[in-house]
Amino acid sequence: MIRRLRQKFWTTKPTRSFGGDLAVLLFIAAAAAFSALPLVYAISNAFKPLNELFLWPPQFFVRNPTMANFYDLLVLMSSSWVPFSRYLVNTLVITLGGTVGHVVLASLAAYALAKHDFPGSKWMFSVVVLSLMFAKQVTAIPNYLITSVLGLVDTHWAIILPAWAMSLGLFLMKQFIEAMIPDALLESARIEGASEWTIFWKIVMPNVRPGWLTLIILSFQALWGETGGQFIYSEQLKTLPYALSQIVSGGIARAGVAAAVGVIMMILPITVFVINQSKVIETMGASGIK
Amino acid sequence: MASMPERQVSTQAVYRPESKLGQLWKRIKQNKVSYFFVAPYGILFFMFTVLPVAVAIYLSFTHYNMLQPPRWVGWENYLRLLLADDVFLIAVKNTFVFAVVTGPLSYLASFVFAWLINELKPRIRAFLTLLLYAPSISGSLYLIWTIMFSGDSYGFINSRLLYLGIVKEPIQFLTDPKWMMSVVIIVVLWMSLGTSFLAFIAGLQGIDSSLYEAAAVDGIRNRWQELFFITLPQMRGYLMFGAIMAITSSFAAAEQIIPLVGFPSTDYAGHTIVAHLIDYGNVRFEMGMASAIAVILFFTMVISQRLVQRLLDKIGT
Hints:
With 290 residues, chain A is an all-alpha fold. Chain A has 14 helices and no strands. Chain A has helices spanning 2-9, 18-46, 50-53, 68-78, 84-115, 121-131, 140-149, 157-164, 167-180, 183-191, 196-207, 209-224, 240-248, 255-286.
């Protein structure tokens, strides 16, 4: 019995004790409960009618679930003078454009920094890492000046272009390429006459799939929450988080709507996460380079 | 005889391209392709990160209110911060308490959970990963904690405590300086399985499984030996990545803290260095002071990173 149970949950290895395995599972389950329960509460709030939201003592689970909060949100959205779908499209443009560009440009640079030894490579990498440690609040003004000199203010490029060169992706991809691509593999490809460009697309990128799938999750999430505040003024260019935050700022009377907004904003990042994360796990079983 | 030195001079002139600068130029030309690879990222990075940081460092030596042009004041901002600003010192103290607790704990948690989860079968692993990662993807939903810890009787925790008769009046979790830091730390730890957690998961997936098989044959007996002799050394690059993410997020915390405890918080008990920076920059429009804080914070992080790096270098040696 115990053996079948173990086989069901674990990729059993000879170096594991059953007691240890069980303790580990209980420990993870406790942590997962701590991490999920507040979210369950938040989601359950979104389905509560107003009288349950302000019930005392507050109940954890909803008793008479209702879509009223979502319906109210829909009404509020349709009363905005820019069609609401516009905000969604803007956010999608920024998120997708920013993520794709960031993954490609950061991976290109990370490959060169990880596997080519050229003058300035070490220096460039440390500058990127150090930049993570500089508070971004004070670079907002110089950033605005540069964006305006480039004539990008009040366009989506003001957000997309800086996103392409975020520090995170280069740092992350360099670690993945260093750990997952053996030098011998690159050497043999070079001997067979492959160009660096071919090597990058045909060998490096397929083999660091877990890396860029993870980067897509992180970058998507960062851009999805982008309000565009300081750069975008035209109403028809503004983003979904901005529009929704305007609705939520209506105060306590919008408590139910705010809960609904939180739930709706979470749907897409979670979907991207689930799809990518399952692929991270599945690629590794199949990869045969090592 | 007189012609000899002349000839030497002329040969030196011929070989001058082989001087240090010449060799460098040659290597740069040999690596042309590498520069094409880094150029698109590098140019954008320079424009949107390096330049603004350089400007901010310059501003830290000026008086700049965003209306009049910056006026050079030398070290005045730094001296004012360190000698004449009591609140800054409170912020430094809070930030260190916060960073010392949340930094190592979130780092450790990210690794430990990624490591433990790694052994489970794909389906249950994917499910648990989702549950553990969900808080960091939850966007504004983390504000549920303000309802959880709310100081009136409708706060979830207070309502339970009142209902059960444990307390007579609600505890002011978010405004009482006694509670503030603990509450903030709990919430931030709740969200701590983020970027590094995902990087660790993907990194662990990339470790060659034949290493483990060989190790089992070679006499590795339990999961701990396996962790220390194989997993950790293989993960070194990711561990460095995680350490830097932990340092930057724990020292620069403010954005998750301010919505919880307010701005400014009671007696500045939840005031961090970056909260102080926001105070100067966005409230008082003293960008010089704000930039000086950023520079001080930067060096604090660099020093702590160097210390952590030394510890990490010891792994597997």
